[in-house]
Amino acid sequence: MNLIQIAGIAIVLIVIAVMGGMIFVSMDIMSHLATGNETLSPAGTPTGRALVVYDPGVSGAAKSAAVQIARNLQSKGYTIDLAGVNSESAGNTYGYDVIAVGGPTYGGVPSRSITAFLKALKPTDDAKVGVFATGGFTWNRTAPWYEQDKISITEGVSGIWEDSSLSNPVAIEVIRGDKVDRDSSDFVAAMLREEKST
């Protein structure tokens, strides 16, 4: 084989890999595997019930964020149901005091499974609802596009509410990969209307 043939084969393989990745993401394959459920109990007497629903996404970052959010709520005294978006527990949202829902965003747009879940969400009237998102971009505060990425994701998540009978959430947060602990804590504080960390 000569160098041109090898280069041509390499280009074809790259194109196939990129197209396969795009199909994988666009079909939201990982959400179909999110069927797990875990219950976390607080150390003392429960102060309420919380549901944390997630689509893990391709990287699993959204599940990591959901776990951290669940732990924060658990430390506040809530009994938590941590549920994949396609789990049986995620389908029953009645009776929760707090509902946190989130998953990955692709190009600033929430995954299809999270969008569908939020559009169908029917919590009790006094439930506090929060939406969190993770994304696959560089979080560099010095870059001029940092705020634009955050605005794009917030608008993408906020736009879900326009076609739903559900009122606006009490919290929307972008959970950054390098600041999962702080962002998750801030998200929980916003849902519970507490002071954010500094």
Description:
With 198 residues, the protein is an alpha/beta fold. The protein has one domain (30-192): Rossmann fold (3-Layer(aba) Sandwich), CATH 3.40.50. It has six helices and seven strands. It has helices at 3-26, 29-32, 61-75, 112-120, 146-158, 180-192, and strands at 37-40, 48-54, 78-84, 98-106, 109-110, 128-135, 171-174. Strands 1, 2, 3, 4, 5, 6 and 7 form a seven-stranded mixed β-sheet that branches. The chain is elongated and about 70 Å long.
Keywords for this structure?
single chain, 198 residues, alpha/beta, Rossmann fold, 21% strand, elongated
Rg on CA atoms, Å = 19 Å
CATH superfamily grouping? Flavodoxin domain
What percent of residues are in strands? 15-25%
Q: What summary fits the major beta sheet? A: 7 strands, mixed
Indicate the low-confidence ranges by residue numbers: none
DSSP strand count: 7
How does CATH name the architecture?
A: 3-Layer(aba) Sandwich
Look at the structure and give the mean pLDDT. Answer: 78
- Secondary-structure element string: HHEEHEEEHEHEH
From the spread of the alpha carbons, the general shape counts as elongated
Question: Given this structure, which CATH class is correct?
Answer: Alpha Beta
Helix fraction by DSSP (H/I, runs of at least 4): 25-40%
Tally of contiguous helical segments: 6
Please identify the structural class as seen in this structure: alpha/beta
The CATH topology turns out to be: Rossmann fold
